[in-house]
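On clarity, I found the account of how folds are encoded harder to follow than it need be. Since the whole study asks how a given chain folds, the encoding of that fold should be made plain. The format is easy to grasp once an entry is in front of the reader. For illustration, here is how one protein appears when written out as sequence plus structure tokens.
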Amino acid sequence: MKNNKWNKILALLLGGSMVFGLAACGGDTGTTESPAGGSESPAAETSTGGETGGTEIAADALVVQVAYENNPGEPVSDAAEEWERLAEERSGGTIDIQLFPSSQLGSKTDLIDQMLMGEGVVTICDGSFLAQYGAPEMDIVSAPYVFDNFDQCWKVIESDWWAEQTALMEDNGIHIITTNWIFGERNLMTTSPVESVSDLQGMIIRTPNTASYVRAFELMGAAPTAMAIGDVYTSLQQGTIDGLENTYSTLYGSAYYEVAKYITTTKHVNMFAQWICSQSWWDSLTEEQQTILSETGDEAGLINNDLQTSSTEEYMQLMQDNGVTIIDLTDEQRAEFADASMALYEDPSITGQWRDGLYEMIQEIIAE
């Protein structure tokens, strides 16, 4: 798996001059989260001048703390390392990206609190999380059964609607640096098999603390709970919950296969993510620094997307090797889950801060 992964990275980097000019588009991230009950990772090294990845770092370099919940070895973390290398190389060592995986600097909420104080911290979020910060309609891009594939996601982020949402974010102190990062397809992992909506009835399923997720699983008959991700492994082990939903990289990276032996391919969310920072901090940068961070962020996003795509089958096989049964639903079976969740888009507790017909408008954008 590792050799394949780095071969793909090398191939992409050799074509870097072609990739550089692309205007690419891209959780809880959605979350790909820190390991349940995992040990602390070593703190990132801070540099006061020196060499990182072959680039000499200037003593007075701009320090950018890039913090995230993903663990080393997951695609997002591997691609973040490439972002670090690319930005430092492109800037001639005048930008010093320091990586803090595995929630070393705290949760996304903690990090955004730091951002809103103007600190130079960068983290990764999905739309459902950003909806809490001035753009409530962003929730829909992470809601169940909106997108069938990631090409549809890219159409939305090129739309006038998306530009409007990012402007609202900026008005509320948050800047999106890059948004072309695939976070992954989210599926259901449980301690007993689920092949139909009836099998899900009454099962306690951990979801992100996002109203649309909670409501969707209620509509599918589950008993969702917005438990902190750090409690999930132990809760599965003790039988407090019956399952969770997430991307393959998180399900494998956090070793949930040790305590839950069934994955159902509900494919309820195709999740992409945004790297964000403080708008006031971003405005304090030079135009050159802004360009380097955003363009190399997009380049690293393309690397991430290749890793996410190529690693999916490998993660599935690794979990099967560890005793997990993957229940691959037919389109007809999956439609039952989608149909059950559609009432979400007529529920005023979810759509109350959305414009009328937002779901239909998004479907029109992706149909163009």
About this structure: The chain has one domain: 24-367. Residues 1-49 have pLDDT under 50 and may be disordered.
